[in-house]
Predict the 3D structure of the following.
Amino acid sequence: KETFEGHQVLRIVAKDEGQLSLIKALEDMSEFELDFWRGVTDVSTPVDIRVPFHSLQSVKIHLEGQDIEYSVMIEDLQAMLDKEQEEMVSAAR
Amino acid sequence: RPEPRNSDSFDFANYHPINEIYAFQDMLVAENPNLVSKIVIGQSYQGRDLNVLKFSTGGTNRPAIWIDTGIHSREWVTQASGTWFAKKIVTEYGRDPALTAILDKMDIFLEIVTNPDGYYYTHNSNRMWRKTRKPNSGSNCVGVDPNRNWDAGFGGPGASGNPCSETYRGPRAHSESEVKSIVDFVKSHRNFKAFISIHSYSQMLLYPYGYTRTPVKDQAELHSLAKKAITDLASLYGTRYRYGSIINTIYQASGGTIDWTYNQGIKYSYTFELRDTGRYGFVLPANQIIPTAKETWLALMAIMDHTFKNPY
């Protein structure tokens, strides 16, 4: 079973079209193994990306290095999934 | 989990594995033999039945409305909402004058688990799985994005040719049995008037096209109907939706479901992106299932009512 300990979902907001292109360029950086939950659309719409633990630091440095604003939408994905699972099990009981 | 004795005691406020949703479908059919029947339109790659619930009060090949949920398996709030819609239709027929008028003249088809292999996989192996589960020859990566596999701008920009991508289009249009089964069903039925494919998340109501900037010929009508639908949706809890064509509202996407259905002549072709915009993404808490389903139902009724009142 795939687990997601330490995976975070970052909510990234581009300031302008230039930054939007920089965010879109992340799609091709397969080494980060990013999972775009909400893809790049336009400057006014945030981009949500699930970032595996092993890439977190690199991705954050990459974004900060380009002055791209982001927030952490989900601190630890696995913790949320565990809660979801618990709810399902307790509902079953 | 104790088996619910009937569909009234089914727990709509929680997520359920595929076997429980399939059991619910059979229960609903058994309880409502004069309104609900189950059609198996094909099998998934791993051999699971592709179940479509048909809601009909009679007639032969009546004009029809299609609703599907769960084509992207990790979007759990959609399958859960689809289950609630099924019960809502049965409960409201004969009570709600608008729905009763629709069902007295039209049929409704509802496919709740449109990607069963993927859905099973999200419960047992990878909660974040989106695609089908068919292996791709020549690659270690599995699965095709079933919303890029349709013969509408297939292979164009807005889908990937890389089997490891979440938006992998597949080796050819309709290569996925989960997609081909709907294609064949829609083509053989030949009388669908509306086609609504439900995704999550980001709270949008979208109409064609996604593969080209060329506006659809019915753009004005689809746009104003979308506005009415999201206004009705927002009337319940104030949930705000954006709306417009796929390519103008989100991004270019080729091989998409509703581009194909629109090109088949099904004018009222829409895609929903349900909750959430806030903090949960695909892991929407179960306590938001029923509110999401209830508000979405108002938008669905707006589209179905308009379809009914504007025959073509």
